[in-house]
């Protein structure tokens, strides 16, 4: 009950306030401002007609947008509209008043609406007051909210931009009745609260002239740029997994740790792609290049995993390796750079330590010289030679795969760079 009483009091107060703002033409005002208002609005002034005495001429309306806050699709602006009303003029010496503040509902105002607004245009601008000077110049600055569509190219995400356009014009009067003059510059100085995701780069206005369009239209464009500071932290795990793909090729192919790391990065790529899927925008036509980059990185990871399993099988097998790869690996290992990259000396030392069967310690710790047949020694030496070649060939193929992956990642990085760079 208490709530309903308060509501009634508020409604009554608003009703009295509305009656107070309306002008009474029956009474005789005592102040100069009241006499001026009665002269302007109580004698033959029709707010439904254009404020011009020569009906064959057009009313010049100047529009300017002062942007206050910009979101992706929502624009909160102060729409500045000015024109000359030939019926609202007076002699300053007679009344001693330079200007009047009147309600927009009491005078004629141009019907300016957005042509491509996302929502209804009825309540786009709130009720406002206008300023009228002694020469009949009327200035109205209503706060308006428009929701327009933005054209974006998500291929460069998160380095993408959005180009938002908003067309304002008169829907009732054509160019023969109203002529709109736009200001080419839009004020963005008063944007005190920046948006968390977007930064306004530019804002422009231009008047549209179409041969088959008789309605005056002004198009406002806003260029937005995404803040990319936070995306540095978001993209870091993905690039770390790409670096792991490159570094894992320098581990031994028979190492179990190499398989474990490759399986872990493979699962990490899947999880990271799913995470990026929920981060990227959906309103673009093109697929973000970063998604393609990490998809290709996943394919490289799977290729390295498959190649590692094949090399492990080749290293652990007792058969002879391919003669072509034997010759290429031996020729590469004979050079100074090749011996460093292939680590041929380390391969020989490890093989010698692992396959030294000429002496074995007994249970007491004494060295026992084993007597072996000459045929067995030759077979053992041949086996060691084949094993060394297999290790060298496997390392050689690892280095070839490293070079191929390196060039692939370089090309992928160039593709990720925004097209503007």
From TrEMBL:
Classification of source organism: Eukaryota, Metazoa, Ecdysozoa, Arthropoda, Hexapoda
SUPFAM superfamilies registered for this protein in UniProt: Nicotinic receptor ligand binding domain-like (SSF63712)
Chloroplast listed as a keyword: no
Signal peptide: 1-22
Superkingdom: Eukaryota
Residues annotated as transmembrane: 228-252, 259-278, 290-311, 391-414
Keywords: Membrane, Signal, Transmembrane, Transmembrane helix
GO molecular function: extracellular ligand-gated monoatomic ion channel activity; transmembrane signaling receptor activity
Domain Neurotransmitter-gated ion-channel ligand-binding: 36-227
Keyword Transmembrane helix: yes
Descriptive protein name: Neurotransmitter-gated ion-channel ligand-binding domain-containing protein
An annotated GO cellular component: membrane
Organism: Anopheles albimanus
InterPro entries tied to this protein: Neur_chan_lig-bd, Neur_chan_lig-bd_sf, Neur_channel
């Amino acid at each position: 009950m208490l709530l309903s009483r308060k509501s009634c009091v508020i409604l009554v107060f608003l009703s009295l306030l509305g009656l107070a703002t309306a002008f009474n033409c029956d009474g005789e005002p005592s102040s100069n401002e009241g006499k001026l208002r009665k002269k302007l609005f109580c004698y033959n002034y029709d707010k439904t007609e254009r404020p011009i005495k020569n009906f064959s001429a057009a009313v010049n309306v100047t529009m300017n947008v002062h942007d206050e806050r910009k979101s992706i699709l929502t624009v909160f602006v102060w729409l500045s509209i000015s024109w000359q009303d030939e019926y609202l003029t007076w002699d300053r010496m007679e009344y001693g008043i330079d200007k009047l503040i009147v309600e927009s509902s009491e005078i004629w105002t141009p019907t300016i609406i957005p042509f491509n607004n996302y929502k209804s245009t009825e309540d786009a601008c709130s009720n406002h007051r206008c300023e009228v000077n002694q020469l009949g110049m009327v200035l109205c600055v209503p706060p308006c909210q428009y929701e327009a569509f933005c054209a974006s190219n998500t291929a460069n995400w998160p380095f993408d931009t959005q180009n938002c356009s908003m067309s304002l014009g008169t829907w009732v009067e054509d160019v023969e009745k109203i002529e709109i003059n736009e200001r080419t510059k839009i004020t963005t100085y008063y944007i005190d609260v920046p948006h968390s995701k977007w930064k306004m780069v530019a804002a422009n206005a231009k008047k549209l002239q179409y041969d088959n369009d008789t309605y005056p239209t002004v198009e406002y464009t806003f260029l937005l740029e995404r803040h990319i500071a936070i995306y540095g932290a978001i993209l870091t795990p993905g690039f770390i997994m790409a670096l792991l793909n490159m570094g894992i090729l320098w581990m031994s192919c028979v190492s179990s740790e190499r398989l474990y790391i490759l399986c872990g990065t493979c699962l990490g790529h899947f999880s990271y792609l799913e995470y990026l899927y929920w981060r990227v925008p959906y309103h673009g036509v093109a697929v973000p290049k970063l998604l393609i980059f990490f998809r290709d990185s996943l394919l490289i990871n799977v290729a390295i995993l498959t190649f590692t399993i094949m090399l492990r099988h080749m290293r652990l097998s007792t058969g002879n390796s391919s003669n072509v790869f034997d010759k290429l690996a031996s020729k590469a290992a004979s050079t100074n750079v090749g011996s460093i990259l292939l680590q041929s000396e380390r391969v020989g030392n490890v093989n010698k330590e692992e396959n030294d069967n000429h002496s074995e310690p007994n249970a007491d710790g004494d060295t026992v010289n084993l007597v072996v047949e000459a045929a067995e020694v030759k077979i053992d030496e041949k086996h060691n030679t084949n094993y060394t070649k297999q290790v060298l060939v496997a390392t050689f193929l690892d280095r070839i795969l490293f070079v191929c992956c390196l060039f692939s990642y370089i090309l992928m990085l160039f593709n990720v760079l925004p097209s503007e760079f």
